[in-house]
Amino acid sequence: MRKFIFVLLTLLLVSPFSFAMKGIIWQPQNRDSQVTDTQWQGLMSQLRLQGFDTLVLQWTRYGDAFTQPEQRALLFKRAAAAQQAGLKLIVGLNADPEFFMHQKQSSAALESYLNRLLAADLQQARLWSAAPGVTP
After folding, report:
1. In this structure, are residues 59 and 116 in contact, taking their beta carbons and an 8 Å threshold?
2. Percent of the chain with pLDDT over 90
3. Is 95 within the bounds of a domain?
């Protein structure tokens, strides 16, 4: 019987459900700048109280959105507030609104396009790695 209980407890502890992330996805929009810092902090606290442990920031750049320093600063500030509320942070990088249109290109053109996306993602990763007050 002890062996059975030991095996059962071991299975429960290594179950994927015991390690599952309880995240929520945020797709930043320019209109999010209308949300005050106090409202955002309250929202992050509510997420923690509701059992979420991770904020997934879907993108940190979407086309031309979030390319201006003040827009990036707001994203950094919101990400830092999420972490201060106790949420882990998963940071998405560059998203091209025309991504699916480019899938119809020739192989050579598609390879060139994907290399440009890679360069944009690397640039975003460097930017967020150096973000003040944020640990992505």
Report:
1. no
2. 79
3. yes
